[in-house]
Amino acid sequence: MLDVSSRYLTLAKQLEAILDKDLPYISNLANFSALMWLELEEINWVGCYLANQSKSQLFLGPFQGKPACTTIQVGKGVCGSAYEQQQTLRVENVHEFPGHIACDSASESEIVVPLYLNNELFGVIDIDSPRLNRFDSSDQIGIEYLVKVLENKLSDVHF
Length: 159
Ligand code: SME
Fold this sequence. Notes:
By secondary structure, the chain is an alpha+beta fold.
């Protein structure tokens, strides 16, 4: 396993403590965003975009930060590209990413991690920063680990 820094391991423990498998996924996504918003430095947006049934569009899910665009076409922007390519996209300078969708003009760098529910691609986690090159490879490893912790607690139970 790639080395997860102690910073992110501590955060993962906090996350484990607030997530609950018996809740609908929307509740866990909401608290995931809230914890990231509180604990990660130099970010101006964190949240998720979730795929529609036909997997052609992503819809805004629980988040923290300024109101954001509500739909993103799969393949468009950083979020739609990460979803389509099924891989993390770490963007050092969003102004250099072709087709970047600017929801908050303060954003300078961004990381988007695919999100799975029951082993099926379900959406993405998106984190924006007002600082260029905010996310390095160690942040990527840490954030991907946090998303794995989240996925292990996500369930599609409904009430
Ligand atoms: N920048 C994203 C859009 C979502 S906002 O950052 C919240 C993108 O290019 O897909």
